[in-house]
Model the fold of this input.
Amino acid sequence: MISTGSERQWAAARAPLWDELAELVDERRRHPKAMDASRIDLLCVRYQQAAADLAVLRSREPRSPLLPRLNDLVVRAHAAVHPSRGGSLRALAGFLWIGYPRLVWDLRRPIVVCASLGIAITLVGFAWAMADPVSAAGFLPPSVRDAAYFKHDPIPAGLMGPEAAGIFTNNILVSFYAFGGGLTLGVLTLYIVYSNAMLLGVLSGVVTHDGFSSEYWSLILPHGLLELSAFAIAGGAGLAVSDAIVRARPEPRSVVLRRQGAKAGLVAAGTVPLLVIAGLIEGFVTPSGLSIPVKLAVGPLTALLLAVYLIRGRPARSGNGGHEPIPEGQANRAANALDG
Done:
């Protein structure tokens, strides 16, 4: 650990080099082709020094308030030193392959908070319905209060496509509301988490009160694990935005909100393909004539594949004890490709 006094002395000694690097990065962006070769060489040297400083600070003082600013500088310098020559689709593919899992890993704490809260509320709702199904059923919409007595027959193939489209469109809207709720200091985000989790818990408890229903779970699990994971990711992105609003110091709130909002926005946008897949499963697999064991196996399989994909975002430690920064240019080009 670096003591407060030692950290200040160290930062004061390194600050001129960081300021010079920031000037070189701005110059590189303003005049990418006209920058003198000696200035480019100096940019590379200062970038390597700042990256080493970032690694030292992360390993010795991981809670330092200097970290966000220095990390942002290193990321911008990385984009200036290593400009991409690939197309937008290539950048998007690279971002989805490794950039997105890294962003999710970066926001893992609010995502875990959101997921844990959802699980806890679901269990409370389930316990309430098991103990007093009549009272708990009053929480449910009238259309599903008698779900325990429903019979579900396969729907015609011609209706599966529109059904799937309607499902994932609605779910995408819910996920964006959960993300945008961060601007309400997380109030809307937490309400969406509560309402979805309580609905699932109460409904499951009401249906299960008289005994385990494999048919009910075959309607929930195939798409449910993937869908709920996407909601947790979007909700976690919303909580990250609210955290940036509340705890911005020592940096200006606008700076922190812009940086964290851009990152969280990409994370929330990345839930769209997950929700499309979940909607397709709910529209084509859930109402199909497949056997119940096959349907029940789909949910855990998709959850496992998602976990394997996201765990790739866990950064490998470099030789100096630090983590590689997420290239800003790659994320920006991916965002442009999504917009285009």
Observations:
- The two ends are 46 Å apart (CA to CA).
